[in-house]
Amino acid sequence: MNKQTSLSIAADHPAFAGHFPNAPIVPGVVLLDEVIHVIVADSGLTVTAWQISSVKFLSPLKPGESVIIVHEQLANGSIKFEVLEGSRQIVTGSFAPSNRIS
Q1: Of 13, 76, 27, 16, whose CA–CA distance to 35 is shortest?
Q2: Each residue's pLDDT tens digit in the chain (102 positions)?
Q3: Contact 64, 48 (CB under 8 A)
Q4: Most CB contacts within 10 A, which of 19, 26, 31, 62?
Q5: What gap in Å lies between CA 78 and CA 100, rounded to an integer?
């Protein structure tokens, strides 16, 4: 079952000061951090329960643009996700269960 969460990165986010001041875009690491926070909150999994298996940044996101984070845990335990601005894909990727021993 897909879960969805709305997100907008405010124009005054500190990352914009150094990430192209005259033509700001949301840094990929900020988007990925938001995706991780959403998945942790929705799934109850800890950050150490999985690792990034793939990420593709497909389109830039400007400050203040609203997106939807869509994610789904698959039968094999992996979690696929995408960040959408309307029908435009911003980021896609997946997390795989971690082999770490806690």
Answers
A1: 27
A2: 789 999 998 888 888 777 777 888 899 999 999 999 999 998 888 888 889 999 999 999 998 899 999 999 999 889 999 999 999 999 999 999 887 544
A3: no
A4: 26
A5: 15
